[in-house]
């Protein structure tokens, strides 16, 4: 990076920092507010209002112009002409309800409101015809305790502890109280998979453990597969790898074990590699093509001569780089030495002011390095300007 100013510029009398006259209008010039017509000085270039209140009113007007462009249009229910924006389709609330019921009625049958009994169209989960009936329905459900937050606490039928039920039929505070309840003794049933007896903890439990559940699931999946493909016929065949006779589990079962399957797969890969041709490579030194001795060869050169020549060339490149770097260091040190001056003043920002003043009192001088114009990130100070003028 070079300094933007050269010594020739300083010698010709160029002045730095001269400001040009700007004839065009600046962005921070006083302007008129688009809402209240008052003069104000803007803070940013795109400001159109004088303050926050006018800005809010201006945004509301722009939103109305954007989304509420009122035009005459016919109602899609009664075909009456009315003034509305582009999103409105019906002229009144009654027409809107008719249109909504007409659209939903095509998909779901009508039903009666649980509060007022009025027939209405709605989704499968809707139970009320309007917002008022929905509010009354929610009040009635809260009074009956159908919501968890509205259910009153009740005592446990076993230990008498007060607890908050999660459902209306919740009678016990925990699993231990439910199992020790004398009215409902624990059930001992047989596992559907292994046939062993176990204590039933849930009403839908059918297996004694997770292992039995997983085994039963696999058997069901296998049985469903056999329903589609038929029950396989188990044959005694010879293993294609070790010639051992074994019983097949399915028609594609041709190896007796996983190790035989791995050996056969390895042999297939070896044969495929053996039959493939040896691909030629490019020499890194002479750029000529050569054919390696094996398929997995990592050779990069066609001969020993090319390998030696490539290593010598690389070694010479490193030597040239080191010599060039040393030469640059010498030139840089010379430039810094040329850009230094001898002074008898102590630097202001030094931490060893006492020692430097003692050294200067002996009649000696210290070297001060200036910022030369060729250094990266350099800035010119007053001493450098005087030095440059003297040199010129």
Short description:
With 392 residues, this protein is of the alpha+beta class. It has helices spanning 7-11, 52-67, 93-105, 131-144, 175-179, 210-229, 258-275, 304-338, 353-361, 382-391; strands at residues 31-32, 39-40, 71-74, 81-84, 111-112, 119-120, 154-155, 162-163, 187-190, 197-200, 236-238, 245-247, 281-282, 289-290, 340-343, 366-369. The protein starts with 6 loop residues before the first helix and ends with a helix.
Fold and architecture overview:
The chain has 392 residues and is of the alpha+beta class. Among the domains are: 1-9 and 340-392, no CATH class; 236-275, no CATH class; 277-338. The protein is built from ten helices and 16 strands. The chain has helices at residues 7-11, 52-67, 93-105, 131-144, 175-179, 210-229, 258-275, 304-338, 353-361, 382-391, and strands at 31-32, 39-40, 71-74, 81-84, 111-112, 119-120, 154-155, 162-163, 187-190, 197-200, 236-238, 245-247, 281-282, 289-290, 340-343, 366-369. A two-stranded antiparallel ribbon has the order 1-2. A hairpin with a 6-residue loop joins strand 5 and strand 6 (119-120). The chain is extended, with a radius of gyration of 47 Å. The protein starts with 6 loop residues before the first helix and ends with a helix.
């Amino acid at each position: 990076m070079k300094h933007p100013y050269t010594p020739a510029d300083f010698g010709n009398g160029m002045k730095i920092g001269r400001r040009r006259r700007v004839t065009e209008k600046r962005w921070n010039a006083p302007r008129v507010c688009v809402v209240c017509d008052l003069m104000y000085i803007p803070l940013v270039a795109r400001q159109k209002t004088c303050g926050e209140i006018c800005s809010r009113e201006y945004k509301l007007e722009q939103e109305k112009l954007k989304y509420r462009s009122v035009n005459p249009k016919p109602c899609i229910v009664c075909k009456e002409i009315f003034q509305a924006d582009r999103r409105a389709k019906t002229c009144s609330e009654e027409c809107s309800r008719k249109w909504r019921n007409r659209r939903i009625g095509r998909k779901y049958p009508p039903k009666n409101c649980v509060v007022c009994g009025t027939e209405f169209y709605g989704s499968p989960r809707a139970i009320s015809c309007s917002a008022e009936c929905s509010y009354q329905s929610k009040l009635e459900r809260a009074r009956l305790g159908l919501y968890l937050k509205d259910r009153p606490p009740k005592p446990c039928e076993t230990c008498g502890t007060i607890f908050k039920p999660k459902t209306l039929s919740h009678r016990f505070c925990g699993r231990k109280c439910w199992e020790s309840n004398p009215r409902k003794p624990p059930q001992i049933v047989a596992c559907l998979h292994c046939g062993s007896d176990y204590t039933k903890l849930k009403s839908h439990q059918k297996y004694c453990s997770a292992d039995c559940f997983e085994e039963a699931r696999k058997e069901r999946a296998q049985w469903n597969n056999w329903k589609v493909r038929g029950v396989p016929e188990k044959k005694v065949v010879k293993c294609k790898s070790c010639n051992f006779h074994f019983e097949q589990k399915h028609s594609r079962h041709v190896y007796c074990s996983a190790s035989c399957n791995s050996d056969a797969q390895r042999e297939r890969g070896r044969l495929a590699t053996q039959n493939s041709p040896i691909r030629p490579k490019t020499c890194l030194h002479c750029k000529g093509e050569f054919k390696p001795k094996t398929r997995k060869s990592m050779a990069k050169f066609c001969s020993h001569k090319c390998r030696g020549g490539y290593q010598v060339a690389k070694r010479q490149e490193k030597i040239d780089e080191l010599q060039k770097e040393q030469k640059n260091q010498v030139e840089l040190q010379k430039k810094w030495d040329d850009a230094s001056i001898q002074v008898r003043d102590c630097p202001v920002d030094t931490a060893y002011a006492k020692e430097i003043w003692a050294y200067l009192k002996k009649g000696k001088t210290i070297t001060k390095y200036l910022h030369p114009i060729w250094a990266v990130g350099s800035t010119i100070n007053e001493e450098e300007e005087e030095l440059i003028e003297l040199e010129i």
